[in-house]
């Protein structure tokens, strides 16, 4: 009986101190939170430095519409081969590339639309990066229209073919872009590699 | 040996009591704005009710918490789950997105419902009222489809 009492006392002490620690942590977090604005000048300074280094890198890699088309076509080729992993890699690259593109060279009136397209392409790329094959194909098909809208505004650096297979999505049909005229269906892959036809040719102006 | 078992049970008990005091920010404090999906689209009441009871717990700023959400660590797990759900789709801020993004999200919503991916089965285990039978599914998909069509125009 005495022993149980002492254990109970011990437990209460530990419990109380634990909850105190918890409250203490919360306070500390608040303090740290309020400390951030103080350090802000230093931090932005640092961020500026890394930003300039980053943009140097970006200059070397020159993330442009070309990068987007390259990564889009890489996803397309991976899906043609039913290669989910390669599609995921390319999807991640596509999502990353959308953030580094300089759109200030475009017409001011077009910039917000381009920005909206890039956000959607980023969303699709990020989902392709983390999904299984069927879901990757849904997102790949989903961004075909956005890509075509983008190319209509920004132009293309190569001839692309809009291709269409009427059987995708339970007969609702699906589109994609290809660098060659020959049909290799990324929405079905090996199951129906040749379903589709060229609907439109997008060429350089 | 027996003593150790007893002691470790006590320790577990004490930790469980202790963590109940760690504060959690509930996901229900933001006011409803005009960007809220139901405010924004004003769907038929029946449709709005289905969306509210099947989607809003994890995909809006207004979770209806079950009693056990006050018990840790269950509450933390829910919190994690909700923030993940909101990062994919937050219906409370739906109207703030570009039309292009709305269309993208709507299409994803439709495939998630059609493929029975959403609502998640783990959620339905404790929320039978959120379950979408085939009739509810068909009504929802038809409604979301009509929104996509109106955006395509």
Q: Would you give an account of this structure?
A:
The complex is a heterodimer of chains A (205) and B (153). By secondary structure, chain A is mainly alpha-helical. Chain A is built from 7 helices and 3 strands; from the N terminus they run ααααααβαββ. Chain A has a 3-stranded antiparallel sheet. Chain B has one domain. Chain B has 7 helices and no strands. The radius of gyration of chain B is 19 Å and the shape is elongated. The termini of chain B are far apart. The mean pLDDT of chain B is 88. Classes of the chains: A mainly alpha (205), B mainly alpha (153). Chains A and B meet through α1 and α4 of A and α1 and α5 of B.
What oligomeric state do these chains adopt?
Answer: heterodimer
Per DSSP, the total helix count of chain A is: 7
Ranges of chain B where pLDDT stays below 50 over 5 or more residues in a row are none
Radius of gyration of chain B: 19 Å
State the major sheet of chain B.
none
Strand content of chain A: 5-15%
Strand content of chain B: under 5%
Mean pLDDT of chain B: 88
Write the H/E string of chain B, N to C.
Answer: HHHHHHH
**Total number of β-strand segments of chain A?**
3
Structural class of chain A: mainly alpha
Number of helices of chain B: 7
Structural class of chain B: mainly alpha
Low-confidence stretches of chain A: 14-61
């Amino acid at each position: 009986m005495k022993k149980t009492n002492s254990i109970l006392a011990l437990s209460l002490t530990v419990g109380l101190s634990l909850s105190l620690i918890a409250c203490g942590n919360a306070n500390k977090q608040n303090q740290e939170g309020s400390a951030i604005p103080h350090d802000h000048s230093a931090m932005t300074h640092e961020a500026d430095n890394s930003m300039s280094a980053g943009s140097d890198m970006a200059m070397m890699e020159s993330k442009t519409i070309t990068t987007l088309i390259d990564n889009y076509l890489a996803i397309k080729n991976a899906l043609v081969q039913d290669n989910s992993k390669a599609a995921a890699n390319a999807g991640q690259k596509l999502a990353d590339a959308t953030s580094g593109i300089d759109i200030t060279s475009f017409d001011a009136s077009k910039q917000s639309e381009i920005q909206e397209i890039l956000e959607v392409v980023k969303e699709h790329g990020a989902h392709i990066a983390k999904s299984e094959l069927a879901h990757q194909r849904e997102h790949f098909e989903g961004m075909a229209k956005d890509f075509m809208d983008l190319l209509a505004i920004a132009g293309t650096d190569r001839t692309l073919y809009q291709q269409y297979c009427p059987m995708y999505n339970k007969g609702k049909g699906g589109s994609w872009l290809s660098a060659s005229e020959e049909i290799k269906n990324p929405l079905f892959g090996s199951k129906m590699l040749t379903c589709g036809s060229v609907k439109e040719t997008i060429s350089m102006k | 040996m027996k003593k150790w078992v007893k002691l470790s049970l006590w320790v577990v008990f004490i930790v469980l009591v202790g963590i109940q005091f760690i504060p959690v920010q509930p996901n229900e404090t933001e006011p409803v704005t005009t960007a809220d999906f139901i405010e924004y689209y004003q769907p038929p009441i029946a449709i709005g009710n289905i969306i509210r009871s099947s989607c809003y717990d994890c995909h809006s700023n207004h979770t209806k918490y079950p009693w056990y959400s006050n018990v840790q660590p269950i509450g933390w797990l829910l919190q994690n789950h909700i923030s993940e759900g909101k990062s994919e789709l937050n219906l409370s801020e739906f109207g703030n997105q570009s039309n292009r993004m709305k269309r993208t999200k709507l299409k994803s919503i439709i495939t998630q419902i059609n493929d029975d991916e959403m609502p998640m089965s783990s959620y339905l285990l404790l929320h039978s009222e959120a379950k979408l039978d085939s009739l509810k599914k068909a009504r929802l998909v038809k409604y979301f489809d009509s929104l996509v069509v109106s955006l395509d125009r």
